[in-house]
Each structure stands twice: as structure tokens, then as C-alpha cells.
Automatic annotation (TrEMBL):
<keyword id="KW-1133">Transmembrane helix</keyword>
<feature type="transmembrane region" description="Helical">
    <location>
        <begin position="94"/>
        <end position="115"/>
    </location>
</feature>
<protein>
    <recommendedName>
        <fullName>TRAP transporter small permease protein</fullName>
    </recommendedName>
</protein>
<comment type="subunit">
    <text>The complex comprises the extracytoplasmic solute receptor protein and the two transmembrane proteins.</text>
</comment>
<dbReference type="GO" id="GO:0005886">
    <property type="term" value="C:plasma membrane"/>
</dbReference>
<keyword id="KW-0472">Membrane</keyword>
<keyword id="KW-1003">Cell membrane</keyword>
<dbReference type="GO" id="GO:0022857">
    <property type="term" value="F:transmembrane transporter activity"/>
</dbReference>
<comment type="similarity">
    <text>Belongs to the TRAP transporter small permease family.</text>
</comment>
<dbReference type="InterPro" id="IPR055348">
    <property type="entry name" value="DctQ"/>
</dbReference>
<comment type="function">
    <text>Part of the tripartite ATP-independent periplasmic (TRAP) transport system.</text>
</comment>
<keyword id="KW-0813">Transport</keyword>
<dbReference type="InterPro" id="IPR007387">
    <property type="entry name" value="TRAP_DctQ"/>
</dbReference>
<keyword id="KW-0812">Transmembrane</keyword>
<dbReference type="GO" id="GO:0015740">
    <property type="term" value="P:C4-dicarboxylate transport"/>
</dbReference>
<feature type="transmembrane region" description="Helical">
    <location>
        <begin position="12"/>
        <end position="40"/>
    </location>
</feature>
<feature type="transmembrane region" description="Helical">
    <location>
        <begin position="135"/>
        <end position="152"/>
    </location>
</feature>
């Protein structure tokens, strides 16, 4: 039963990560295009665009938050290995689980607090483009949900892969 759940979560996270990777590529390309366009318009043409900076900021926000979630999935999120790397093998497995649990807790908090912020700022529009500001503010709870999902997947995969001694009853 546990193996079935682990495989289902692996498939789900692989699907979510593939969509996330594609969206991050699009966000970075759009962001860079907006910045280049803004520079060309300002210094070559002599006119500034009102919308390019705002769109670049929106894409930057997604690239940052989505990249954070992808970092959790791929295991390249920011952390210090100095302490964990010097622990004995049995303790290292438990420390890795603790890190994944803390990461999942951070994702759950980002999901919760981002949802509250989204609710508080509803109805506003952006200054230049006029898009609903919810487009920007929904990025935090989406990233938080993915961080939580990816950390739980790593926690389950680590439990299945590592030979961690059981606690004595």
C-alpha cells in the first residue's frame, strides 16, 4: 500500500514539475524580452513603454517562486550541509527527514499566508497594464503548495530509499 502511494505521488510530482519547468522557461524568456524591449525603447527610440517593466516584474516573481519550488523538487534548495554531512549515517537520515519536514512546513505556511494575502488584496488592478493584481498575488500560495508537495514527496522517497533505524518502543 505504501509503495502504491509513493509511486502515485512520484507520478504527480513529475507531472507538476514538468509543467513548472515549462512555465519557468516561458517566464524567463518573457521577462528578458520585456527588459530588452524596455532598454531599446528608452535608449534607441527615446520613448518608454508603460507596461514592459510591470510584466517583467510579474515574470520575475514567478521565476523566483517557481524556481524555489523546483529547487525543493530537485534537491538544490538552499541549505547548509555542514552539520548534516558530519553526522553518523543513522542520524543523517533522520536529519534529512527533519529538513524535508521543515521545508514542507514552510511550503504550507507560504500556502496559508499567501492565500490570506490574496484574499485581502482582491479587487485591485495593476497600475500600467491593468491586470487583476490577483495574478501576482496568487503566485505565493501556488508556490507554497508545490513546495509542500515536493517536500512531502522527498520525505516519502527518503523513507523508502534510506536504511534508517527504527526507534525503539
Amino acid at each position: 500500500m505504501f509503495g502504491f502511494i509513493a509511486r502515485a505521488i512520484d507520478r504527480l510530482t513529475a507531472w507538476v514539475a514538468a509543467i513548472l519547468c515549462a512555465s519557468l522557461v516561458v517566464a524567463v524568456v518573457v521577462m528578458l524580452a520585456c527588459i530588452v524591449l524596455q532598454v531599446v525603447m528608452r535608449y534607441v527610440v527615446g520613448k518608454t513603454l508603460s507596461w514592459s517593466e510591470e510584466l517583467a516584474v510579474l515574470m520575475f516573481a514567478w521565476a523566483t517562486l517557481g524556481g524555489l519550488a523546483l529547487g525543493v523538487r530537485e534537491g538544490f534548495h538552499v541549505r547548509l550541509d555542514l552539520l548534516i554531512g558530519n553526522l553518523p549515517d543513522g542520524a543523517r537520515g533522520w536529519a534529512e527527514r527533519a529538513v524535508e519536514l521543515l521545508t514542507a512546513s514552510f511550503g504550507a505556511f507560504l500556502l496559508w499566508s499567501g492565500t490570506r494575502f490574496y484574499d485581502m488584496t482582491g479587487g485591485s488592478v495593476s497600475a500600467a497594464i491593468g491586470y487583476p493584481i490577483e495574478f501576482l498575488h496568487v503566485l505565493a500560495p501556488i508556490a507554497g503548495g508545490m513546495i509542500c508537495l515536493f517536500a512531502i514527496q522527498r520525505l516519502i522517497a527518503g523513507s523508502a530509499d534510506e536504511d534508517v533505524p527504527e526507534l525503539a518502543a
